[in-house]
Amino acid sequence: MEKINLRLFRKKTANNKSAFKRFLTRLEKQPPRGLDRIAVEADALVWQETDCLSCANCCKTMSPTYTKQDIVRISGHLGMSAEAFKEKYLYKDRIGDWLNKKTPCQFLNLEDNKCSIYLVRPRDCAGFPHHTRRRMVDYMHVFKQNIEYCPATYKLVEKMKERLR
Ligand code: SF4
Ligand code: SF4
């Protein structure tokens, strides 16, 4: 498995993101038959080549959305009240979602790219990058956003593009 070179990834994304987004819009408007299965197969190939511990770009550049249950679980794990946890680490955005105040995420260990609350991390983190959802077509807007941050999603779209050419 190759280590991820984020500098190279950013360069590739800058060159290809418009074409990739157009491709995803086409899938959104006219989903081909078997789209969910094609995504599952492409996803399996992606993880054979992707080493998240050499990347952690999601934790460095994006914030998970914290559910109420996440906040209760993580604050309890840290021995804090939910209120103190929110006050210290989170803010509420204009649609009412709780997000990290800062990036990189305060729970990312930048020495080894590991999550210091891995076992109790937000559900959003556990499910990221959301590649194999039922009704993939509903996730095209998520991929359009994430191809700029997540090398695994970039590869997924690349493989789907090859497959559906
Ligand atoms: S909680 Fe952990 S997995 Fe989630 S963004 Fe922070 S460091 Fe990454
Ligand atoms: S999920 Fe994507 S952005 Fe996050 S570490 Fe893995 S490849 Fe990198």
Map the helices and strands.
Blueprint: H1 6-29, H2 35-49, H3 57-61, H4 68-77, H5 82-89, E1 90-92, E2 98-100, E3 108-109, E4 114-115, H6 123-127, H7 140-146, H8 151-163
Antiparallel strand pairs: 1-2, 3-4
Helix pairs in contact: 1-7, 1-8, 2-8, 4-5
Distance linking N and C termini: 26 Å
Strand-residue fraction? 5-15%
Oligomer: single chain
Helix tally equals 8
**What structural class do helix, strand and pairing data support?**
mainly alpha
Shape: globular
* Bound molecule types: iron/sulfur cluster
**Rg, please?**
17 Å
Overall pLDDT = 95
Question: Mind explaining what this structure looks like?
Answer:
The mean pLDDT is 95. The chain starts with 5 loop residues before the first helix and ends with a helix. The protein has helices spanning 6-29, 35-49, 57-61, 68-77, 82-89, 123-127, 140-146, 151-163, and strands spanning 90-92, 98-100, 108-109, 114-115. By secondary structure, the protein is mainly alpha-helical. Helix 1 (6-29) packs antiparallel against helix 7 (140-146), helix 1 (6-29) crosses helix 8 (151-163) and helix 4 packs across helix 5 (82-89). A two-stranded antiparallel ribbon has the order 1-2. Strands 3-4 form a two-stranded antiparallel ribbon. It has eight helices and four strands. The longest helix is centred in the first third of the chain and has 24 residues, at 6-29. The protein is globular. A hairpin with a 4-residue loop joins strand 3 and strand 4. The chain folds into two domains: 6-50 and 129-163, no CATH class; 60-127, no CATH class. It binds iron/sulfur cluster (2 copies).
